[in-house]
């Protein structure tokens, strides 16, 4: 009965056109309400913005700026649409300005292991040599290195791994200014030493212009001027990481059977800790998750991980990338487990010249008399004689 009555009335109203008017009124009211709400939201947001500006200006100006002056300043969200910011982001991605970061080692290795699949770079790339210093604190021979690098900006990058508690920062004019990377404690001969080397490599890999990576200690000196060393490394089609099979107890004798079958005795290699790697080899080293844990667990003193891990890894993974020789000269003639340390009175022209040209080796499949580019170990008191002799002998920039 009731439903019937209602439907009749509706039909009547529709006929009268009254229903149409009612819907129009409801529609208009909804629109008005919506506008009111939107207006309130905008007003609220605007107020916050103005209040922020007021707070910002109040200490400087007793009279807060008028609405109009705040309105003319750009809205903070607008910057997201600026396309030159995107280029800025690429710059930051291919060459992070600040070396300091809060990535864990795991995060750092993962990020550094990324390789572009487009071979050509969308920017002009000047190849650089990364000089990676593994030190405890201050570099005693820094003044010599400053002279070495002087005038070659843009062709090198420097990375320092120090004791974590060492926080001294050299003056802004120094090439070592703000070049420390986040570092951890290093125990000589143990896995933490390899961790430091991988950390140096990974940080240096973040700069896509770094093409060659040299590991150096605080007692190292250069044997040639920058241009000679740069050209030697940049033009070499192989890296300089020494590997050899040493049948003696201090070689094969350090192999641990528990490494089998991943690493066999015939895989086992020895070599100098002081290596040079090109980008491809550097990425192979920091990407290794297969051999590293085996060494960490089964190569402890008297097995020195820094003498066996990289030579064995490279022989297993990419033997053709290295020339199997090191470019850092060390004097082991004294015997024992430590090389000779040179003091003030040992340093003279004849001595340096004998290391610079006293050897024969192959370079890009040809004979060369330049075999070593760096030498160690030089005591801090060799700085004065080195500063006297080196600039002229090595041909540093005047
Ligand atoms: C984009 O940002 C740059 C600086 O970051 C600025 O010079 C330029 O005027 C901005 N362009 C636009 C359209 O906002
Ligand atoms: C590595 O070099 C040797 C010669 O030295 C060659 O016979 C071999 O095919 C090379 N291997 C690769 C993977 O390029
Ligand atoms: C370096 O040694 C490995 C094996 O230890 C060998 O495969 C490779 O060809 C050697 N490279 C050179 C340049 O002699
Ligand atoms: C290097 O090779 C040259 C020419 O073959 C030879 O005269 C010289 O004695 C060699 N030097 C050494 C240290 O073997
Ligand atoms: C390195 O370059 C030399 C000369 O250009 C060439 O003979 C040699 O095969 C190259 N070696 C490798 C491993 O590419
Ligand atoms: C570097 O030394 C070489 C010879 O060893 C010399 O020919 C060259 O001019 C020197 N470069 C500079 C920039 O002094």
Bound molecules: 2-acetamido-2-deoxy-beta-D-glucopyranose
Which second-level CATH architecture of the largest domain applies? Alpha-Beta Complex
Largest sheet: 4 strands, mixed
**Assembly state here?**
single chain
Q: State the CATH topology of the largest domain.
A: Spore Coat Polysaccharide Biosynthesis Protein SpsA, Chain A
Arrangement of strands in the largest sheet: 2-1-3-6
Mean pLDDT: 85
In terms of DSSP E residues, the strand content is 5-15%
Helical stretch count? Answer: 13
- Structural class call reads alpha/beta
Q: Tell me the distance between the termini.
A: 112 Å
SSE arrangement, N to C: HHHHHEHEHEEHEEHHHEEHEEEH
Number of domains: 2
Give the overall silhouette: elongated
CA radius of gyration is 33 Å
GO molecular function: glycosyltransferase activity
Membrane topology: Single-pass type II membrane protein
Pfam family, one: Branch
Subcellular location: Membrane
How does this model look, in words?
It is a single chain. The chain has 398 residues and is of the alpha/beta class. It has 2 domains: 2-75, no CATH class; 96-395, Spore Coat Polysaccharide Biosynthesis Protein SpsA, Chain A. It contains 13 helices and 11 strands. The chain has a 4-stranded mixed sheet. Strands 4-11-8 form a 3-stranded mixed sheet. Helix 5 (105-112) crosses helix 7, helix 6 (142-149) runs parallel beside helix 13 and helix 7 packs across helix 9. It is elongated, with a radius of gyration of 33 Å. Residues 46-74 have low confidence and may be disordered. Bound molecules: 2-acetamido-2-deoxy-beta-D-glucopyranose (NAG) (6 copies). The site of one 2-acetamido-2-deoxy-beta-D-glucopyranose has 3 residues, from loops. InterPro entries: BC10-like, Glyco_trans_14.
